[in-house]
């Protein structure tokens, strides 16, 4: 009988209190887990069955015996370089409080009782944007474009294992009823997409918590922040009923840069939504979670300063900026840029890094970008980057250099050095 959470390098509380479901019905132990190694499926007859597959039981046995599991390698890798992992934070926040669930585990790794303390279900790929760095799995508009211009349903099936533009783990509303009985136990939820603010299940979940009087659920979003209304519902009315709501807006820039990167976005509408949020639900915390890539790396510092100057973002707050460094597709990774351009970028991001009015976490984000600039210039990658942009421009009737003129200089350098 355990009296505290094991201090091993592999134990994680999440397989006892959480699952991560994807639109394609794969179930993973968490969002950090290797998506090529699912441990279950939402097609299971009920949640307990879903949580007691051969893979899930083996994972729990491994964790209790101190044996590593391949599906968890990303957390191990993060910890190996001295960074704080989801495994460690989950154990710290929810480990000892849920020790009784761990102690009830049978010898073969199965559980008879499950409490959904932390919820992260990606209900579908429905989305109102088609971002340059995204794809059909997480955007129905991307899937629609692929079907219409890149080979039809047959190619969509071959490349993405999708039979339709819309993918959902809640076909015929069959998964939500399985999850519904567990909503009463949720302490924290993370909504992401697709675009969660236009996902019907998102509102069904909130409605259930309102009915249960659970205004204490901590709600976190990653959202493109483009729309507040879904059918007859306005998400601002919902947020007024919950005590703790946190927004991470996936905004990569402003004006034409945003609108090129996230096709379907309108900067004026997004900025108006930020103002409405500040006025109507001031208790909601607003943060940025951009993806830094070749498209926006020169522009983003100007955008961030604009957000600070207009008091949309508080740079003294730890989570005000949470960067995602694009690694895939590789040809949009900033590490492949020409050295002269990297030198310029290093100095520009250094102004954020050295700004004494910004908290250390924001400064560290700038340092992370500077670190990501290290690497060899890849002319073949830059050529592929521009070729793909021009191809997509023809489909979307857009013009790269009109919308992001800074990139024309890199294009000319690439042409000269091929």
Descriptive overview:
- With 418 residues, the chain is an alpha/beta fold.
- Helix content is 42%, strand content 10%.
- It has 19 helices and 14 strands.
- It has helices spanning 14-17, 47-50, 54-65, 73-80, 86-94, 99-103, 140-149, 152-160, 176-179, 200-212, 235-239, 255-261, 267-280, 300-309, 339-353, 360-372, 379-396, 400-403, 407-417, and strands at 20-21, 26-28, 40-41, 118-121, 130-131, 188-191, 218-223, 229-230, 233-234, 245-249, 262-263, 285-288, 291-292, 324-325.
- Strands 3-2-1-4-6-7-10-12 form an 8-stranded mixed sheet, with no helix packed on it. The chain has a two-stranded antiparallel ribbon with strand order 5-11. Strands 8-9 form a two-stranded antiparallel sheet.
- Strand 1 (20-21) and strand 2 form a beta hairpin.
- The mean pLDDT is 96.
What keyword list fits this structure?
single chain; 418 residues; alpha/beta; 8-stranded mixed β-sheet; two-stranded antiparallel ribbon; 14 strands
SSE blueprint and pairings:
Blueprint (H helix, E strand, L loop, with lengths): L13 H4 L2 E2 L4 E3 L11 E2 L5 H4 L3 H12 L7 H8 L5 H9 L4 H5 L14 E4 L8 E2 L8 H10 L2 H9 L15 H4 L8 E4 L8 H13 L5 E6 L5 E2 L2 E2 H5 L5 E5 L5 H7 E2 L3 H14 L4 E4 L2 E2 L7 H10 L14 E2 L13 H15 L6 H13 L6 H18 L3 H4 L3 H11 L1
Parallel strand pairs: 1-4, 4-6, 6-7, 7-10, 10-12, 13-14
Antiparallel strand pairs: 1-2, 2-3, 5-11, 8-9
Mean pLDDT: 96
Radius of gyration based on Cα positions: 22 Å
What is the rounded distance between the termini?
A: 66 Å
- What are the segments in which pLDDT stays under 50 over at least 5 consecutive residues? none
How much β-strand is present in the residues?
Answer: 5-15%
Q: Please estimate the helix content.
A: 40-55%
What structural class is derived from the secondary structure elements?
A: alpha/beta
